[in-house]
């Protein structure tokens, strides 16, 4: 599985929207369930999602979790089926924005390595 981050953009409303694509470069279908994380309330409302993603502002020493509504539905891609061999899926996630002085954060999605992401906007 290879994830390509296309954009992490700061919105005027105080959010960061991250857009990415995930490709299954293997020869077998891959389950996407782990991407939703392990928080029970999120799992119940967001099966097969990317709700387990986080951003970490190392300078500000703060972790940011996916935004959610009052019913625990994430502001992210949901309903992701198993990813067939050779196929790609597009995903998005919204987080609270770190301070405007923060221009780079670490991004983590379960089963993928942590990577640094530059914030635009």
Overall domain count: 1
Counting DSSP H or I runs of 4 or more residues, the number of helices is: 1
User: Spans with pLDDT under 50 lasting ≥5 residues?
Assistant: none
CATH topology group: Immunoglobulin-like
Average of per-residue pLDDT values: 95
Major beta-sheet overview: 4 strands, antiparallel
Per CATH, the class reads Mainly Beta
User: Tell me, what's the shape?
Assistant: globular
Structure summary, number of beta strands: 7
Helix-residue proportion? under 10%
Order of helices and strands: EEHEEEEE
Beta-strand fraction estimate: 35-45%
Looking at the overall shape, the CATH architecture is: Sandwich
Structural class: mainly beta
> What is the rounded Rg?
14 Å
Determine the N-to-C terminus distance.
29 Å
Neighbour order of strands in the largest sheet: 4-3-6-7
Give the gist of this structure:
By secondary structure, the chain is mainly beta.
Give an overview in words:
- It is a single chain.
- Strands 4-3-6-7 form a four-stranded antiparallel beta sheet, with no helix packed on it. It has a three-stranded antiparallel beta sheet with strand order 1-2-5, with no helix packed on it.
- The termini are far apart.
- It is 5% helix and 36% strand.
- It has 121 residues and is mostly beta strands.
- It has one domain (2-118): Immunoglobulin-like.
- The model has no long low-confidence stretch (mean pLDDT 95).
- The chain is globular.
């Amino acid at each position: 599985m290879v994830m390509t981050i296309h954009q992490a953009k700061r919105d005027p409303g105080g959010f960061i929207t991250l857009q990415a694509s995930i490709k299954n470069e293997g020869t077998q279908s891959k389950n996407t369930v782990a991407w939703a994380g392990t928080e029970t309330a999120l799992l119940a409302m967001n099966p097969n999602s990317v709700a387990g993603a986080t951003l970490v502002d190392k300078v500000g020493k703060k972790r940011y979790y996916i935004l959610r509504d009052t019913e625990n539905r994430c502001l992210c891609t949901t309903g992701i089926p198993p990813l067939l061999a050779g196929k790609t899926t597009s995903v998005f996630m919204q987080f609270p924005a770190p301070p405007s002085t923060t221009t780079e954060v670490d991004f983590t999605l379960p089963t993928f390595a942590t990577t640094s992401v530059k914030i635009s906007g």
